[in-house]
Amino acid sequence: MTLRLHDSKTRTVSDFTPLKDGEVSLYVCGPTVQDGPHVGHIRTFLAFDVLVRWLRRSGYRVTYVRNVTDIDDKILARAAEEGEAWWKWSYTNERKFGEIMDQLGAVRPDYEPRATGHVTEMIDFMQRLIERGHAYADGEGSVYFDVSSLPEYGSLTNQSIENMVDDAEAASNLKQDPRDFALWKKAKAGEPETAKWSTPFGEGRPGWHLECSAMAKKYVGESFDIHGGGLDLRFPHHENEQAQSYGAGYGFAQRWMHSGMLTVDGMKMGKSLGNFITAEDVLAKHPAAAVRLAIVGSHYRTNVEFNDTTLAEAETVLSRLRGSLTRALDALEQAGAHEELCEPGEGALPDRFTEAMNDDLGVADALAVVHERHGQLNTLLAKPHIDAHEVASAVNELRDMLDVFGLDLLGAMWSDEPGAGGAEHDALDALIRAQLEERAEARKNKDWASADAIRDRFAAAGIRIEDSAGSSRWSLTN
Q: Fewest beta carbons within 10 Å, which of 167, 210, 232, 256?
């Protein structure tokens, strides 16, 4: 089945054909680093992380660009509140963001350009728009895009210019039209000298929309395959990006993809509503793999209700998967068949899994295949005498599929997760093994009361014991 993806502009799912055969260029609007990220921000970036993984698993060479907005009004305001230099505040939060994405196992972009490193490109872009009649300077240091000059303005979000609201963020009585938006903002009194750049039009700093158009052109070209971002960016940010790039004479994004929101009690998670949960807080309380599954386990275009129940369900799923995979590894070691295991990406994926992912990243149907194969693995492990080849095949397929979601539970990324190995797990394993040996001795001596008492203590402590021919294995219950 051909890969089919949704296009937010046409509101249809269609065959994906890249501009260059075998290559995909992807630009995703990255974080504005006025603070550390909340989980709603992470939703967007993990959604496109799965897209990148699937494109690469499908054989495409992907150029993945995700920018960092490190200068804007909010950053300047937050830095002033904290008594920090704005550039230091931005960099600190950028580092936090990167550490959290690493903790969640996200693929790093090929390029992660900062806005402040591309002011020269922005000035050139702005001058091109002025020369082509799509922008104007107000004479006091600001430059605006003339929305009436571009017939296509509004085509991304299917709005007519007559029905659009004024751009309050760029309010000025010097604008030709209240809906015109700022390409360049003049320096304000009291702002740091380090937060302004010189241009032919006066000192100031770039507008948010201009940053992305200029950086996209530099890293993925005048025309590129996919532009991604959160659904809340469609208007005005993405509409304005498209307008700028069309006005400059560029083809810009051939397809637009937008991720849904995280919600709390049905409301979009956001700082303005005060219902946000910082990514740092969530990761301090829950395993990163579970947070990742709770977010990527739903279709990227849907809104995801995020709460303790969602996280608990994800933890349960991962615990059961990890337990089965660990038992399978033990069984293969005992059978001397460990060499039949492969690294993710080396084998073929099940057809139904591939069909699901090729249907606009159909995660729900793809995960159904994962759970089905997981059940088959458990059936194989329950047999008195295992078929090592079948067990290895099931493990390889499960790892391949889970790796598409960034959740290869046997890989190095998740080896130190709680319950996945590491010092804590090893210490617990040693204690349990000692008890299992005592229980095995009691069973050997037909001291059923003692054997059952040990098993009951395990159950009360949340530890499941599974007996098979000649051995016993343990896992945590939920």
A: 232
Which one, of 148, 221, 144, 147, lies nearest residue 185 by Cα? 144
In 104-168, at which residue ranges do the beta strands (DSSP E only) sit?
135-137, 143-145
93 by DSSP, 3-state: which?
helix
Residue 113 has pLDDT above 60, yes or no: yes
Q: 179, 177, 170, 172: which is closest to 239 by C-alpha?
A: 179
CA–CA separation, 121 vs 116, rounded Å? 10
Q: Residue ranges per domain, the chain?
A: 4-135+148-165+213-259, 421-478
Phi, then psi, of 185 in degrees rounded to 5: -110, 130
Strands 61-66 and 23-28: what pairing? parallel
The answer to whether 478 touches 319, Cβ cutoff 8 Å, is: yes
Mean pLDDT value across residues 316-327:
96
Residue 212 marked in a binding site: yes
pLDDT at 474: 72
> Helices H, strands E: what count in the chain?
14, 15
Given the structure tokens 């089965």, which residue do they identify?
A: 324
pLDDT-based confidence at residue 422 (cuts at 50, 70, 90): very low
394 three-state secondary structure = helix
**Residue 378 CA, distance from chain mean position:** 30
Sign of the Cα pseudo-torsion (31, 32, 35, 39, in order): negative
Distances (CA, A) of 227 to 44, 59, 437: 12, 20, 58
Note the CATH number of domain 4-135+148-165+213-259: 3.40.50.620
**Residue corresponding to tokens 């530099």:** 218
Query: DSSP class of residue 140?
Result: S
Q: How confident is the model at residue 166 (pLDDT cuts 50, 70, 90)?
A: low
In this predicted model, what pLDDT tens digit does every residue of 441-476 receive, in sequence order? 788 788 888 888 888 888 888 787 766 555 566 766
H-helix or E-strand spanning residue 23: strand 23-28
Cα 322 to Cα 325: distance, rounded to the nearest angstrom: 5
pLDDT at 198 over 50: yes
Give the tens place of pLDDT for each residue, 88-108.
999 999 999 999 999 999 999
Which H/E stretch holds residue 451? Answer: helix 448-460
Take residue 435 and report the two structure tokens written for it: 């008890």
pLDDT at position 429 is 65
Q: Is 241 annotated as a binding residue?
A: yes
CA neighbor of 295 nearest in space, from 307, 284, 285: 307
Q: Where are the beta strands (DSSP E) in 167-273?
A: 181-186, 204-206, 223-230, 252-259, 262-264, 267-268
DSSP code for 359: B
